[in-house]
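Extended Data, panel c. Modelled sequence:
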Amino acid sequence: MADSVSDKSIQNLISATKSLRLSLQKSQGLGLALDKAGSRFEEINQRLPSLEAAVRPIRADKEALAAVGGHINRAVGPAAAVLKVFDAVHGLEKSLLSDPRSDLPGYLSVMKRLEEALRFLGDNCGLAIQWLEDIVEYLEDNAVADERYLSNLKKSLKSLRELQSDEGKTYLDGGLLEAALEKLENEFRRLLTEHSVPLPMSSSSSLGEQACIAPSPLPVMVIQKLQAIIGRMIANNRLEKCISIYVEVRSSNVRASLQALNLDYLEISIAEFNDVQSIEGYIAQWGKHLEFAVKHLFEAEYKLCNDVFERIGLDVWMGCFAKIAAQAGILAFLQFGKTVTDSKKDPIKLLKLLDIFASLNKLRLDFNRLFGGGACVEIQNLTRDLIKSVIDGAAEIFWELLLQVELQRQNPPPPDGSVPKLVSFITDYCNKLLGDDYKPILTQVLIIHRSWKHEKFQEKLLINEIVKIAKAIEQNLEAWITAYEDPSLANLFAMNNHWHLYRSLKGTKLGALLGDAWLREHEQFKGYYAEVFLRDSWGKLPSHLSREGLILFSGGRATARDLVKKRLKTFNEAFDEMYKRQSNWIVLDKDLREKTCQLIVQAVVPVYRSYMQNYGPLVEQDASNSKYVKYTVQTLEKMLMSLFQPKPMRYGSFKGSRQLSGNFNNAVKDLRRTTSAAV
């Protein structure tokens, strides 16, 4: 009984176990089924929005659905045209990224097509975007499309709308136009650089032999290419870039042409030179160099600017030329002239100012034509200031010259009796002012200067002023003659200077102005003072060789010898003293010096020779004869003929005490470099 109950329980447990296992398997199957169903539900959930959007038109208003087609068709038409043009733009890319030099006309033609395409895009993109925005708004208002779909459309349209701005339009072609313009700029520079050759010159000295006007320095074909490029650059608002390149290349070419002339002197400042004389060589070069620059270089650039930019307008090409002229060096030329006018004032400066005025006046018509436009205001102002400074400075120096000569009267005359530098300088200086080279220029300068003061000028004013200066020199000489303590030196000085006035002015403009009577008067004064000089100095020596008491009688030989010794000693002492004193005196004029020495020899040597022939034997046998017979006739003559010689590097001194904005003597201290006067 008990065993049967136990077996039954075991069977129940086994059955329950099987039942549980079966239930567990069913649960696992159900779980797997549920998992599969979940993924399918997720997939369905993801597809629901699109399904909803797909069926939304079915749920939309019937009239709205009917109008959608028309709206879409109107929007798609412009958009399709825009896309077609975009495709055409990309088709031009290969041609525009090539080198334009191989086929410039073809390149410009393609570039023009690109510009037209970009204009079309600029004009029609906005219209296409507007139509697309309208259809999106319609779809949104009538709930015809999905919201997320519409949101994406709005973002795309917003990006397109931003491209419509001025800044955004540059990206319509992906930067293709910008790249093409840079290539054109490079080609413009290449054409200019390869055909811009400095004007050849053999030397600075041959400037005057150059042709008056240089031909246009660029071939016609090149000019036409440059004009074609400029046309495209103007169409794209890049003219200023073209002008910048043109000015850079052409001004560099002009500077290269001038480089051979060695124009470093144009940079000299006032602090770098003492007076005008130290740079007068540069002033002479300046006139030639300026004329060359204006007539050859700037004239050519003026013509070329007109040829290249004439289609654009006068203001453009004149402005371009003004920049070239300024950068190439015309301002440096004018500034150098201004530096000269600002330098220390002295008489030599007057001649240099007249040289500068002559150079500017010679180029006056060229300056007015080349630099007369509104774009050349800076050049005009500098030129105007320079001319005013030149005229004011020249007139001031000229009218002050008489006063400066008069002020020198109070100074001592030269201690060697020579011609003062002032005298030789002024006579030569006045002749220069009256000469054909300077008189017309000085007259014109004085006319202009007085016209600024509303005063009339007559030529006699110039003549009278120079005559006054010459007369002032005469008065100075009279004062200096009386200033010597030694009468013989005063006579020599008077002889020297009266002869200088006669000799240096005879046959000259100043001499003709003063008249023959004036010249003869000085010639006569020279003769008078020469006679007085000889009489009061060397003419007194023969009196020491008196024959009185020397008649030889028997037994009187010793007495005669003593008289001869005494008189020879007196003669030697007087001769030595006079020779020593006058050995430092100078007669610069060779003819006058030789004639004066010959007169002295004639006055002294024959008497000495005769005396020695007659009485020399009385002392020659004496043991101490060398004390008395000091000179032979030949030695005496040689010594006398050597008198009044100019010393090497020695010049008559004349120190001034007053200044003409700097010592007046500065004008004459290196006179040998600028004048032919004897000093």
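Confidence is low (pLDDT under 50) at residues 649-679. This feature is highlighted in the accompanying rendering.
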